[in-house]
Each structure stands twice: as C-alpha cells, then as structure tokens.
Design goal:
This protein has about 260 residues and is of the alpha+beta class. Helix content is about 40%, strand content about 15%. The chain folds into 2 domains: about 150 residues, Type I PLP-dependent aspartate aminotransferase-like (Major domain) (Aspartate Aminotransferase, domain 2, 3-Layer(aba) Sandwich); about 100 residues, Aspartate Aminotransferase, domain 1. It contains 8 helices and 9 strands. The termini are far apart. This is 2,2-dialkylglycine decarboxylase. It is an enzyme of class 4 (lyase).
Length: about 260
C-alpha cells in the first residue's frame, strides 16, 4: 500500500499532477483506493476558498475507481456556517464520512457514515467487532449535541457571528504588516503571520510567540499550516458577537506587546 500526501488547490495544475500520479500507479499495477481530505484543510493552514474547489478533485477520484473520504472531525457540525458538513460547501457527496470530537462536546465519541454499497464491500467479507461500538452513554451525549445545534440554530449562528469576526480580524491587517492573510468560513478562521506581506514569507517564530501572548490574555489556540505560521482560530459554537472585541483585542495587544 502506498500513501501519498498532496496539497490540492483549485488550480488546474494541481489536478493535472494528481491525475498523472494516478496514471503512473495504474501503469505499475497499483490500484487507487481513495482520497481522504478535511474539507477546510485545517492542518494545511485553513484553506476554505473558493467554494466548490474540491468538486473536480472528487470527480478525478471517482473516475479512477477510488472513493472520497471526508474527514469532518474539524469542519463538521455546523462550524463553517454555510453547511452542516464542511464538504457541503463544495457540492460533493462523500462515499465515507468520519467524525469525532465535536459530536460529543467533550464526551469521547466518534462516528463513521458510509454509502451502503461502500460499506458492504467491507462488512460482507470481513467480520468486524468493536468493544465500545454503540456505547449508549456516548450516543446519548451525541444526540444531546445534535439537539442543541438544531434547536439553538448554531449553524446559522456560526455563519453570522463568524462573518463579523472575520471582518474585525481583517482590520488588524491595516495595522500590522506581519498579518499576511485572514481567511475562513463561519467560526473557523486562519490568521496568517509573515515576515513580509509582499513575499508572504512565513513567520513561525512570531506565530509561536503570539500564541504565548494570547495565553496571557486567556486565549488558547494553536498553529497550523506546513510552516507553522497560521493561527487556527476555532472558538466554541457558543462564541457570541460580544466576544469578538475580546478576541480581536487580545490579538491586537499581543502583536503590539511583541513590537509589531
């Protein structure tokens, strides 16, 4: 089995290289199994746009006999605001969906959803057993989370409050040259730090220093992206419009205290 990590964007060149790689595999007798992706590419630095850019990649996957596995651990459960699932922003239907942490709001639980024909290829030929599968306590927690998301309209809340938060965070670009980009969807935002906005040279050191400053202001976050220079801002869905000034203010103060 071969696993290939690839950075896909909406660019035609990326898809062409992806297709070429699959053709090379096929020529060497290597069967393509599938494509696994987090639909907001959170660990790659939060790459939400343009909407729909995953669609062509999934078409290539299916054309080559593979399946598309949507990793919804981070973008799922209404966080992006535009759709309940992150992949919903791309107008695609996965063959398999994996999810976890958010569905239990702290209670250990995970889940897998799949098209019947895909699951049958596994379950009809391989015996499967899971000691903790269907744990009633975990299932009760997951049902309670779904109930709250639905009854309190948290997906729409994420869309509205997230858009306002994004707009306020972008004002920091006017004050600090080191803020290279601010991008996101709903309450899932990437705050990119660079040494120079024109060259977009990643500034990992600043990102790590800023994380420590934010901690002093009682804000906890982490870095993402291949260069570790993107702050992943993913507040709880309970984050309110009144919390925006506090978060943006913490970032403002942190950058100022670091002499930026």
């Amino acid at each position: 089995m071969r696993i290939v990590w690839t950075r896909l964007t909406w660019a035609t060149g990326s898809l062409t290289r992806f297709s070429s790689r699959l053709m090379i595999w096929r020529a060497h007798g290597i069967k393509f199994a599938g494509f696994l992706a987090d639909s907001i590419f959170s660990s790659d630095g939060v790459l939400p746009d343009p909407r729909g850019f995953l669609k062509k990649a999934v078409e290539v996957v299916h054309a080559n006999g593979g399946i598309f596995i949507a990793d919804e651990v981070q973008p799922g459960f209404g966080r992006t605001g535009d759709a309940f699932w992150g992949f919903g922003r791309h107008d695609v239907v996965p063959d398999i969906i994996t999810t976890g942490k958010p569905m239990g709001n702290g209670i250990p639980v995970s889940g897998l959803l799949a098209k019947s024909e895909v699951l049958a290829a596994f379950s009809d030929s391989i015996p499967y057993f899971n000691t903790f599968g269907g744990n009633p306590v975990a299932m009760a927690a997951a049902q309670a989370v779904l109930k709250v998301i639905t009854e309190e309209g948290l997906q729409e809340h994420s869309r509205v409050v997230g858009a306002k938060l994004l707009a306020e965070l972008r004002t920091l670009m006017d004050r600090y040259e080191c803020v290279g980009d601010v991008r996101g969807a709903g309450l899932f935002i990437g705050f990119e730090l660079v040494t120079d906005r024109h060259s977009k040279t990643p500034d990992k050191t600043l990102a790590l220093d800023l994380i420590e400053k934010l901690r002093e202001h009682r804000v906890l976050t982490s870095v993402a992206g291949p260069y570790g220079n993107v702050l992943k801002l993913r507040p709880p869905l309970a984050f309110q419009e009144g919390d925006i000034d506090w978060l943006v203010g913490a970032l403002d103060s942190g950058l100022r205290e670091l002499g930026r």
